[in-house]
Design brief:
heterodimer; A: 112 residues; alpha+beta; Alpha-Beta Plaits; four-stranded antiparallel β-sheet; two-stranded antiparallel sheet; 2 helices; B: mainly alpha; two-stranded antiparallel ribbon; 14 helices; 65% helix; globular
Chain lengths: 112, 457
């Protein structure tokens, strides 16, 4: 099993969700996060005073998939989250040791 | 300069000759000695002017601001706020003159009161003989500010700020100022009291304010397109409390709007005040009752929307109808506007984001047409006057002849607003572009257009 974490621009969320759904991915967790990479921050102005805001709002999607689905899922996110402009985000893939469905005590890939 | 002076002299002379005739058709206040300011009338008009401005800010600002998502609240408020500055400037330079200056039946001469020349302490007996002309100018300016601000609700959350400003400057110049002249200006084509060809009753702005803005809002919403994600993504009001506070301020401000339109502090102001109040109450009741029956619960925002619908609907009729008639108009308004907002919008699938057309447009069309039958000379003796129609002498007060006049006034307003808005939107789209790009829309207009967010920390 692999955990895919994707940090994306918030307005791409609906498209990414739809693309992952099409692959048959059953669930995901979404959080509103803030951070920066190469894009750095932006400037806000309040009554003439400028404030540099370092951390930009992003959306983090987490989903755990079977090993066989990993490449397709990464491709789907790449395609649906990309705008080509700086600040599109990143995808991280890691191995997951175990998954357990709390209600039924199922283990492994059948639990995700 | 000399020519303008000569024209003014001619106008004064003309007025002198026709004054006895006019005195018959205008309100009893005109019987006061010419040029005398009545301090009571002036006090009420100044208070009313302030009340009408309060409808824009904070009334409309809160009402609209609460209905949009948190990322667009500042830009939505800005759309109304900035017009307080922009329209005031235009009004001073040429707007008042186009609306109330001498001119043709369709538009006042923008130069006759350029920079408010000649608008001073002396009353202008063409419009309000007992208050300084300056008071009348201020009162009318507040109407010119709120009318375009109403339209902004149809394009919230997606319009480029620059495109918005340019649209509004053109819109008030091509639609509002001329329409105001036609309906309320001396010699205007639809002016029932002073020299119109077709007498259309519109006490406080059914055609000039609510139908013009409502129809323009519909056309603008259709042309700019839906908000990205509408309607499958939920776009919930981010703060209903703000909208309710705004509703209360709108209702209170509307007393200045309607009762102030009596242009005096006499019994006509009282009856317009009463009609306004009872219509708002009735529309809130009928909207809530209908919603309760159809959806199972009476929503708080539904009661608020019903109130605004009742206020917009009674506006043209407020100085012409009895209290029971006003209550009946309000009951109809609640039902008609509820259906417009829930059924018509979903059937045709346009995104009039804050229901400007459904509430203001449909509401005031209903009010204008009902007024044709319900106008009552006991409430406003001035409409006991008669006009010639098809060789016969008929009264302004009710009946099919007046209904037809009202219908013509409504149809003309709809046509003018729709065509002019279409042309202006096409023009602005070609030169500036209407919409922000997808990413700016997603981030929200507060940050992308103004560099600020409403809620920090």
């Amino acid at each position: 099993m692999k955990k895919i974490e994707a940090i994306i621009k918030p307005f791409r969320l609906t498209d990414v969700k739809d693309a992952l759904n099409e692959l048959g991915i059953q669930g995901m967790t979404v959080s509103e996060v803030k951070g920066f990479g190469r894009q750095k921050g932006h400037t806000e102005i309040y009554r003439g005073s400028e404030y540099t805001v370092d951390f930009l709002p992003k959306v983090k999607i987490e989903t755990v998939v079977a090993d066989t689905l990993k490449d397709a899922a990464v491709q789907a996110i790449l395609k649906s989250a990309k705008t080509g402009k700086i600040g599109d985000g990143k995808i991280f893939v890691s191995t997951v040791e175990e998954a357990i469905r709390i209600r039924t005590d199922e283990r492994g890939e059948s639990a995700v | 300069m000399k020519k303008i002076f000569f024209c003014s002299c001619l106008a004064v002379l003309l007025f002198g000759l026709t004054a006895p005739l006019l005195a018959d058709v205008s309100s009893p206040a005109a019987a006061a000695p010419a040029g005398a300011v009545n301090t009571g009338d002036n006090a009420w008009l100044l208070a009313s002017s302030a009340l009408v401005l309060m409808m824009t800010a904070p009334g409309l600002i809160l009402f609209y601001g609460g209905l949009v998502r948190a990322k667009n609240v500042l830009s939505t408020m800005m759309h109304s706020l900035v017009l307080m500055a922009v329209i005031s400037a235009l009004w001073m330079v040429y707007g008042y003159s186009m609306a109330f200056g001498a001119g043709s039946a369709f538009c006042g001469n923008p130069f006759s009161h350029l920079l408010l020349k000649g608008v001073g302490a002396a009353p202008d007996p063409d419009y309000a003989g007992t208050i300084p002309a300056q008071s009348f100018m201020l009162f009318q300016m507040m109407f010119a500010i709120i009318t375009p601000a109403l339209i902004s609700g149809a394009v919230a959350g997606r319009i480029k700020f620059k495109a918005y400003i340019v649209f509004m400057v053109l819109w008030v110049t091509v639609v509002y100022f001329p329409l105001c002249h036609m309906v309320w200006g001396k010699g205007g084509y639809f002016n029932w009291a002073a020299g119109g060809k077709i007498p259309v009753l519109d006490f406080a702005g059914g055609t000039v304010v609510h139908i013009s803005s409502g129809v323009s809002a519909l056309v603008f919403a259709l042309m700019i397109g839906k908000r990205s994600g509408y309607p499958h993504e939920p776009m919930l009001p981010h703060n209903v409390v703000l909208s309710l506070v705004g509703t209360g301020l709108l209702w209170v401000g509307w007393f200045g709007f309607n009762a102030g339109s009596a242009l005096s502090a006499g019994s006509l102001a009282t009856s317009a005040f009463a009609a306004t109040h009872f219509s708002a109450a009735a529309a809130a009741l009928s909207w809530a009752a209908l919603e309760w029956k159809l959806k199972g619960k009476p929503s708080v925002l539904g009661v608020a929307a019903g109130m605004v619908a009742g206020l917009a609907t009674i506006t043209p009729a407020s100085g012409f109808v009895s209290i029971p008639a006003a209550f009946a108009i309000g009951l109809v308004a609640g039902v008609v506007c509820y259906l417009a907002v829930t059924k018509i919008k979903s059937t045709f699938g346009y995104d009039d984001s804050l229901d400007v057309f459904g509430v203001h447009g449909i509401g005031s069309i209903t009010g204008m047409l009902l007024l044709g039958f319900l106008a009552n000379p006991e409430v406003n003796p001035a409409i006991a006057n008669t006009f010639r129609a098809g060789g016969a002498t008929v009264s302004l007060a009710g009946g099919t002849h007046q209904f037809v006049n009202q219908l013509i006034g409504v149809a003309f307003t709809v046509a003018l607003a729709a065509i002019a808005t279409f042309v202006i939107v096409k023009l602005v789209d070609a030169v500036i572009g209407l919409r922000v790009d997808e990413e700016d829309e997603s981030v929200g207009l507060d940050l992308s257009q103004h560099g600020e967010r409403a809620y920090n920390e």
